[in-house]
Amino acid sequence: MTQTAIPAAFLRGGTSKAVVLKRADLPADETAWPALFAGIMGSPDPNKRQLNGMGGGISSLSKVCVIGPPTREDADIDYTFAQIGVTTDAVDFSGNCGNMSSAMGPFAYDEGLVAGPRDGEAVVRIHNTNSGKIIRARFAVAGGRATVSGDLEIPGVTGTGAPVALDFLDPANTCGHGALPTGRICDRMVLSDGRAVAVTMIDAAVPSVFVAAADPGGDTCAHPEAIDADTALMDRLEEIRQRASVAMRLAPDMAAAAARIATPKVAMVGPPAAYRDLSGQIHPAEGHDLQIRMISAGQAHRAVPVTGALALASAAVLPGSVVAGQCGPAADPEKLRIGTPSGIVTVGATRDPASGQILAARILRTQRRLMDGRVYAPCPAART
């Protein structure tokens, strides 16, 4: 099969990397995108390395972003995210990637897709087509380019970079069933092994289900590889995720829920406790407000997906939620310190006390363009 060459950029956003494509360079028929994107990533790969493509063998490195002109008057660009399976050819458009969201504004500015000052601060309103939500990105620019150098350090990324402030406006209800699709802050599930677990199912930034780690037999101090290796625990978490998918009306049945790999996210949460991160650094209990271990596309995440962290912050402002129950006594929902496998991440959410509406969720990230050129895919011609 003849390879197809497509103009592309390779970007890091937060703790993820993705191939970034322009809408105009892709087939007008979006049904052709999944096979194209899987080919670009080198999926499926039973060896979990994606050596025949651009993927890196883990979920945070198996992503494609598409940028195009806005389809809403309150946005400057459209941004579509695709999560590509590693061992399968599944391509899931059901959720956003908050980490890669941090790179979309700077990319659009550098490409001349949006207007902005030559020097100072640029503001880009991003319409994420997956969630139907607006993300406001603010970042420094100099000489007509987005600034890359800075002093912000984020867990999981070596070195420092220029901050990109992301405001996820009105983040709840990305799938049309409300912030709490079941109508309850806390639900009880009985798993197939008879184990009962309490969960909070919330749709804010990304549909997510949170469970106290002890309920399914997990540990939020555990190394991601240890979580991946605990097949019984991973099976329980996947069952919780699939049951939540049906309960949240994201999928009609368990089989459909299994095929929907990107959402809902499932995460174990636990109270603050001393733990060692992936770099070997020890984090004392008093340095964070709670811990999280999130599963992303069937693998324990090495940090935390940004949208997952924002969903966590949104759940933390709901009294009686599983997340609120695990927070330390001094936790501030607007500056929530989360203990992740790669270190401490600070996120926040604000809630209208009168209406209960989650107004916004916020986080700081860094980003960097790594490469420009053309990406090759073993597919028919991409442009129509």
Provide a descriptive summary of the structure in words.
With 384 residues, the chain is an alpha+beta fold. The chain folds into two domains: 4-163 and 367-377, Diaminopimelate Epimerase, Chain A, domain 1 (Roll); 187-349, Diaminopimelate Epimerase, Chain A, domain 1 (Roll). The protein contains seven helices and 21 strands. The strands form two sheets. It has a 19-stranded mixed sheet that branches. The two termini are 18 Å apart.
CATH architecture of the largest domain: Roll
| 3D shape | globular
Structural class: alpha+beta
Number of DSSP E strands: 21
- Assembly type of the shown chains? single chain
Tally of structural domains: 2
| Terminus-to-terminus distance | 18 Å
Proportion of helical residues: 10-25%
**How would you name the CATH homologous superfamily of the largest domain?**
Diaminopimelate Epimerase, Chain A, domain 1
Rounded to the nearest angstrom, the radius of gyration is 20 Å
Average pLDDT, all residues: 95
Order of helices and strands: EEHEEEHEEEEEEEHHHEEEEEHHEEEE
CATH topology of the largest domain: Diaminopimelate Epimerase, Chain A, domain 1
Low-confidence stretches: none
With helices defined by DSSP (H or I, 4 residues minimum), what is the helix count?
Answer: 7
By CATH reckoning, the class of the largest domain would read Alpha Beta
Residue fraction in strands? 25-35%
Largest sheet: 19 strands, mixed
Keywords: Isomerase
GO molecular function: isomerase activity
Pfam families: PrpF (PF04303)
Family: Belongs to the PrpF family.
